[in-house]
Amino acid sequence: MVLDHEKDHASRWAAVVSIAAKIGCAAQTLHEWVKKAEVDSGRRGRRPIGCCRAAESAGAREPRAAPSQRDPAQGVSIFCAGGASQGLWAPVQAMIAFIDDQRAVHGVEPICRVLPIAPSTYHAHAAKRIDPLRLSARARRDVALRIEVRRVFEANFRVYGVRKVWRQMQREGFDVARCTVARLMRAMGLAGVIRGKPARTTISDRSAPSLLDRVNRQFRASAPNRLWVSDFTYVPTWAGFVYVAFVIDTFARRIVGWRASRTAHAGFVLDALEQALHDRRPARSSGLIHHSDRGSQYVSIRYSERLADPKGSAANPGSNHRSAASAKAMTTLWPRRSMAFTRPR
Questions:
Q1: Which among 259, 264, 266, 342 is positioned nearest to 303, based on CA atoms?
Q2: pTM
Q3: pLDDT digits (tens, 9 = 90+) for 215-249
Q4: How far apart are CA 257 and CA 250, in angstroms?
Q5: How far apart are the first and last CA of the chain?
Q6: At 134, phi and psi to the nearest 5?
Q7: Could you say which DSSP state residue 204 is in?
Q8: Rounded to whole angstroms, how far apart are CA atoms 245 and 247?
Q9: For the segment 105-124, what is each residue's pLDDT rounded down to a tens digit?
């Protein structure tokens, strides 16, 4: 939006200040978004040219790996692609267990050439398993505390949680922190019994027609009122659970509509949508997409009819009626609805 209307103002900053006041965000924040958008589109470089040339010349002087050896700069493709942020790095303990199973067939060093682990790392872990004195002070203390934590947990009929196990160990004279007990119980897979009935927010309506997921987990928008995501959660209080529904504009990551209720009915998620429509009043030509999960509240007739009401501020949006023909017509109506197939929580 700033890039499109920059020519209508005296400077870019003037355009940023004018548009930021209309969409309800800080001017400096909008300016940062514009610079990031230019980087993503290729209009602005990520680094100065001199830095890139220096990096390329430095990389050209570095020795390359032999044809049959692993390049330390690139690593192995099965673990390098996506990086650790994508969850593709294998845990060290998992790789050590794999080497233990396959070392008799392939050997340690050939496996380490494929996996991102050094042979010295594996041999160090193996030596610590043989000689516990090689372990660190914390690791040796964890070995002793694991026995006591499991003993207290089993002695109390496997119902104690972290707090009660920690209190019992304090009464028995163990000087241990609560976070340490929580860490050890999580590592051993121990969990106490929770009172009451667990709250479920996503209850799918299998009888309703399924819509296509138009977002495909790409929660990015190029301008305001292009992509809204809706969901609701629960907050435990002393008086019980309070459900909170919200509608978020993914461009500014801003909540444009919300509502709280004691019950998870379709009306309170509809109130959040009404607030968002009243606050933003999206234009007919904005191409707004409404994205939600397949919860019964969002596929209800009331919610769908509100999106399909041509007299509303949404201006002839698509709906999710029970007929397949209406669901197919969703691709041509505005705003387009999108639904994600999520597991019940």
A1: 266
A2: 0.41
A3: 887 888 888 888 899 898 888 888 888 999 999 99
A4: 13
A5: 37
A6: -75, -15
A7: B
A8: 7
A9: 999 999 999 888 999 999 99
